[in-house]
Amino acid sequence: MPNSATTLNLWKKHLGSVPDSVWDQTELEILILADNNLSEVSESINRLQSLRTLDLGHNQLTSLPEGLGHLSALKDFLYLHDNRLTSLPPSLQSLTHLRYLNIGENAFEIFPECISGIARLIELRASDNALTSLPESIGKLSSLRELHLRNNKLSSLPESIAAMQELRHIDLRGNPIHHLPESLTQLPRLEKLDLRWVPTLTPPAWFNDLEAKGCIVYR
């Protein structure tokens, strides 16, 4: 990705820390800081009020600044995967226009409640964490089309998933699933339910109803 007045690509530049000069480029719409051994991000990031896409993947972040949730223009992509995060700042619930969020390959044991406030989220990737459950509030993500939860520690899904009427794809591979809510049959657009590498689940009879509606159940 070339650099321009609105794009700054610092991918794999061995930075160690973000230069202060980056936060002065308030016209930036795309900022790539992936794979730089970053252990922190300055609160000064809230100066980038034109930012639409932010990539902080493949770093060593254990926390994020509250200012991240104040980036009102951030609506395209937010990559936070492959870090050491265990929580997200509550302010992220203010990113109501964000469409894509990747928090995969971190150390989340508890699903961050703030994500449930990102009302226009279309794709959520939370694979390769240690999540043991999802909150009922996840049902508020009424625009979500893809939910990727591969390789966590989930044993079930909440009943509120029935409210996620735009869901097309649910990836539950590699989870110790014991129970799934029959409310999944109420999802009119569900096309794919991936349950490969889930030997703990006895397929319920209503899987036949899902498949009859055109949903492919991988098992």
Plain-language structure description:
This protein starts with 6 loop residues before the first strand and ends with a strand. It has one helix and ten strands. With 219 residues, it is an all-beta fold. 34% of the residues are buried. The chain has one domain: Alpha-Beta Horseshoe (Leucine-rich repeat, LRR (right-handed beta-alpha superhelix)). A ten-stranded parallel beta sheet has the order 1-2-3-4-5-6-7-8-9-10. The model has no long low-confidence stretch (mean pLDDT 97). The longest helix is centred in the last third of the chain and has 6 residues, at 207-212.
List the helices and strands and how they pair.
Layout (H helix, E strand, L loop, with lengths): L6 E3 L20 E3 L20 E3 L21 E3 L20 E3 L20 E3 L20 E3 L20 E3 L20 E3 L12 H6 L3 E3 L1
Parallel strand pairs: 1-2, 2-3, 3-4, 4-5, 5-6, 6-7, 7-8, 8-9, 9-10
